[in-house]
Amino acid sequence: MPDCDGGCFYNNTTVEVWRDCATVTTWPTNGGVERTIVEINAATFAEIETIMERHSFGDANPVVEVQRAIGHMPS
Q1: C-alpha separations of 65 from 2, 11, 32 in Å
Q2: How far apart are CA 35 and CA 14, in angstroms?
Q3: Phi, then psi, of 23 in degrees rounded to 5
Q4: Angle ∠(58,1,68) on CA atoms, nearest 5
Q5: How far apart are CA 28 and CA 11, in angstroms?
Q6: pLDDT tens-digit map of 31-73
Q7: Is the full-model pTM beyond 0.90?
Q8: Got the DSSP string for 1-65?
Q9: CB neighbours (10 Å) of residue 6?
Q10: Were 16 and a residue from 7, 10, 26, 64 both cysteine, which residue would form a disulfide, CB within 3.0 to 4.6 Å?
């Protein structure tokens, strides 16, 4: 697996971003791990880069905004 281009973590959810995909990993409070891999295109990658540059580390906003950008909001 190539090096991760970016990522963020907040409230038991991690978003990792590569040039062609993003992974969303969640550790539910009842245990276990849920991981989803979403393919992304160059435009979505550029949108995510902008999101990550706009926010500071530890801020919840990039996690939420990246999930919106890739169409993976928690239910």
Answers
A1: 23, 14, 24
A2: 9
A3: -115, 140
A4: 45
A5: 10
A6: 899 999 999 999 999 998 888 888 776 678 888 898 899 987 7
A7: no
A8: -PPPSEEEEETTEEEEE-SSEEEEEE--TTS--EEEEEE--HHHHHHHHHHHHHS-TT-HHHHHH
A9: 17
A10: 7
